[in-house]
Specification:
By secondary structure, this protein is an all-alpha fold. The protein is built from nine helices and no strands. The protein folds into two domains: 17-70, Arc Repressor Mutant, subunit A; 73-189, Tetracycline Repressor, domain 2 (Orthogonal Bundle).
Length: 194
């Protein structure tokens, strides 16, 4: 008799499970709010067992962290022909796009709360902030090279101020993105430096 090449002890893991579960979780967060999401609902919507779900994500925090990574936006690429104003407008427009924005806002709030006692949550937030701060720095340096941002500006101070504006604009949902974009532009190009 021939030997089976299939590993003993069960079937191969389904590569779509992670995405299905995380998208179901993010959908439930958006529709019900994070405190009202149940693992039963997530498992049912994703078409997996609770055992499968708990094997991959033993805690609710593990599920929040992984969903945040899936739903989180990546930084937009800076194209050669873009002006600083174009980039500022694109960043704020992307921050307010569709259901992912609501999911990400709720997941961010959960991670911020958990970061007080959870080093993994703190690191995930730190990594995301570092990505956006690099983008802000690149935009400011581009603006200084093109003359859109005055050459005498302290880049580190501008990065801090713009990061604060973008964070506030992102977390305060009643603020129009155009208002945050205009404020950022005024800070970058103001006649008198900060």
């Amino acid at each position: 008799m021939g030997q089976s090449t299939r590993p003993r002890g069960g079937s191969s893991p389904d590569p779509t499970v992670r995405t299905r579960v995380l998208e179901a979780f993010a959908d439930q967060v958006e529709r019900l709010g994070l405190p009202n999401v149940s693992i039963d609902q997530v498992a049912r919507q994703a078409g997996v067992s609770k055992v499968t779900l708990y094997k991959r994500w033993p805690t609710r925090r593990d599920l929040v962290v992984d969903a945040f990574r899936l739903v989180g936006q990546s930084a937009p690429e800076l194209s050669a022909g873009s002006t600083v104003r174009d980039i500022v407008d694109v960043v704020f427009a992307r921050a307010d796009e569709g259901p992912r924005h609501l999911q990400l806002r709720q997941l961010t709030a959960e991670l911020v709360a958990a970061s007080e006692y959870d080093e993994v949550a703190k690191q995930v937030l730190f990594d995301r902030q570092a990505m956006w701060r690099r983008l802000i720095r690149d935009v400011i340096e581009l603006g200084k090279r093109t003359g859109e941002v005055p050459a005498d500006r302290d880049v580190d101070v501008l990065v801090d101020v713009v990061a604060a504006i973008t964070t506030a604009g992102y977390l305060i949902k009643d603020r129009p993105t155009s208002e945050m974009s205009d404020l950022t532009w005024r800070v970058l190009t103001a006649e008198h430096p900060l």
